[in-house]
Every structure is written in structure tokens, then in C-alpha cells.
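chain below, 128 aa
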Amino acid sequence: LSNPPIFSPTPLKASLDLFDRAGVDRLREKSVAMTGYLEDLLGNLSLGLMGRGRPGLGVLTPTEPEARGCQLSIVVPGASREVQRSLLRRGVVCDFREPNVIRAAPVPLYCSFHDVWRFVRTLGEVLA
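prediction:
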């Protein structure tokens, strides 16, 4: 048992200051709004309102904001790890889980509504 190295807590202190300035309540409010926006856009993508329709595309994560955080687990029929790699090559960072789930998390501290729109548009392009 001992103290952490002197420089280890420095980044933590800076990040805690950011959270204090942003305000946890305001971050949660933005998180709920952005995740709902992401869910709506994915519904539009599924229905073909944002390019070619993607039947079967859906969200596994609970729809109630109080039952989830900012991450959505998106079922993408026929998707493989290559879909996630294609998104990454286009500047979109997300996660892939077998057999066909892409996980996206619009983190309210540093993501914007435009980032959410861009993700769904890029996902539609990759799946086309």
C-alpha cells in the first residue's frame, strides 16, 4: 500500500474539473436527448428515410431513458466486424459484438448532435 505516483492523478483532476464545469445534470440531459436522437435516426434509417431501407435494423437497448445510459446496441442484420472497420476508416469510432451488433455511445461531454447524425449517415453509406 502506498500513494499513487505524483503524476498519475493529474489527468483525473483535469477531467473532474471538466465534469464540474459542465454539470452532471446538464450532461445527463444532453445524454438523454442525444441518445433519443440517435434512436430516432436509426428508426429513419431502418425505414429508408435516410437512403435505402434496412429491414431488421433495430436497437437492443431499452427505449426508456431511465433504463439506459448513452450507449445503444444496434442489431444490424448481416453485419460483420468489417462494418465496424469501415466505419472506423471513415472516422466513426464504435464497437462490434458478435454476431451482428454495433454499439455506439454519443458521450455528452465531447460528442455533438452533428456527430450523431454523421454516425447514422455513415452507417447507412457503409451498409448500402
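The longest helix spans residues 24-47. The helical segments are 9-22, 24-47, 81-89, 113-127.
thats it, cya
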